[in-house]
Specification:
This protein has 352 residues and is an alpha/beta fold. It folds into three domains: 99 residues, Rossmann fold (3-Layer(aba) Sandwich), CATH 3.40.50; 126 residues, 2-Layer Sandwich (D-amino Acid Aminotransferase, Chain A, domain 1), CATH 3.30.470.20; 81 residues, Dna Ligase, domain 1 (2-Layer Sandwich), CATH 3.30.1490. It has 13 helices and 16 strands. The strands form three sheets. The chain has a six-stranded antiparallel sheet, with helices on both faces. Strands 3-2-1-4-5 form a five-stranded parallel sheet.
Length: 352
């Protein structure tokens, strides 16, 4: 049977994952076919796959589309990308087709837990893992009270939505911040508490928030390949200013791997930590999906997307993945730069 893997619409790194898989197959001198799909016209992503498809926008059409595609093209492994909860709810039907399904999790309950930052913090504490203290805020009045009577005495406070991605809604409170700072320097994510409360008072509905102490850092983003809670390979990115340092050891690295194990992670996932005031790493959150920066990790010599594909297709046993990740790793420093590619206006490998 041919090696065919299908990567459905992802959040931000679908192109890098496809390129990683194809370069790994070339290195291993193995025939492997990559199918990719997206709801939108994203030719810069789809053009790097061997074959591409357009996904339906209607969720009711998703399962028939998936099953017919698997049957027609003989897909062996399917990576969900977005809509992880939906895929978990339809896992039995999808895997009955003979393909393996990867959502990043071993069940829907793990996706729900990871999505709720306060619940996640509580579960990690129960597992004996250090985590940033997190307080759920359910009203403006609660937030106003805790800003006046901090539950984290002596530490600067920050806030973000209980659920969400990409750090959206994160703000750090500063009593000395100017009212114009959020307009002149929005990337700093610093706001005066009074201004934040005023903005909240103008909203019709209150979205639950998590209040936390702001940690000095540095921050680590650890990209991990796991198999039902067993960590097979991982690369940590220590973020300091514009530079990221690639590592495969240390307290933050070990903590992130322990978190992925506790969360029964399955596939390519990401765990974030940050050092507290005593210099020790604590867990911030876990994303049961590939990170936007997973492509950076290949500069360490460890190709996580490639090893993921080969493992899911049965081309590499766990022992080989673990050994290769250790053998091929080399420390590296990377920096994100602005880049541009020519946009492919036509796709010659479109299947529908």
């Amino acid at each position: 049977m041919k090696n065919r893997i299908w990567l459905m619409e992802g959040l931000s790194s679908q192109r890098d994952i496809i390129l990683g898989i194809k370069s790994f197959a070339t290195k291993m001198q193995t025939d492997l076919t990559v199918y990719a799909s997206h709801r939108n016209e994203r030719n810069e992503i789809l053009s790097v796959a061997d074959f591409s498809l357009t996904e339906p926008n209607d969720a009711e059409q998703r399962l028939p589309f998936i099953l017919s595609t698997i049957a027609q093209y003989g897909i062996n492994a399917l990576h969900a990308g977005r809509h992880g909860q939906w895929f978990e709810n339809h896992r039995v039907g999808i895997e009955a087709s003979g393909t393996s399904l990867t959502t990043g999790a071993s069940g829907p309950e793990w996706l729900e837990m990871a999505d709720d930052k306060v619940t996640f913090a509580g579960v990690m504490e129960e597992n004996g893992l250090p985590v940033v203290p997190s307080l759920r805020i359910n009203s403006i009045e609660e937030l106003q009270h805790h800003l006046s009577h901090s539950p984290f005495e002596g530490q600067q406070l920050c806030v973000k939505p209980v659920t969400g991605i990409y750090g959206m809604g994160f703000w750090r409170f500063d009593d000395t911040a100017s009212s114009m700072d959020i307009f002149n320097h929005p990337a700093n994510r610093v706001v005066h508490p009074r201004q934040y409360l005023s903005a909240l008072s103008g909203t019709e509905t209150f979205t639950p928030l998590v209040l936390m102490p702001y940690l000095p850092g540095p921050e680590y983003s650890v990209d991990i390949l796991a198999d039902k809670g067993e960590v097979l390979a991982a690369v940590a990115r220590r973020k300091e200013g514009p530079l990221q340092y690639l590592e495969n050891s240390g307290e933050a690295f070990e903590l992130a791997c322990a978190c992925a194990s506790a969360m029964k992670a399955d596939g390519l996932v990401n765990v974030q930590t940050r050092n507290n005031v005593t210099g020790n790493p604590v867990l911030l959150e876990t994303n049961m999906r590939p990170s936007g920066g997973i492509g950076y990790t290949q500069h360490s010599g460890v190709n996580l997307p490639g090893m993921f594909a080969f493992h899911k297709l049965g081309l590499m046993p766990k022992s080989d993945v673990i050994e290769m990740a250790k053998r091929d790793f080399a420390p590296a420093t990377v920096r994100s730069v602005t880049d541009v590619i020519a946009y492919p206006t036509h796709l010659t490998n479109r299947l529908n």
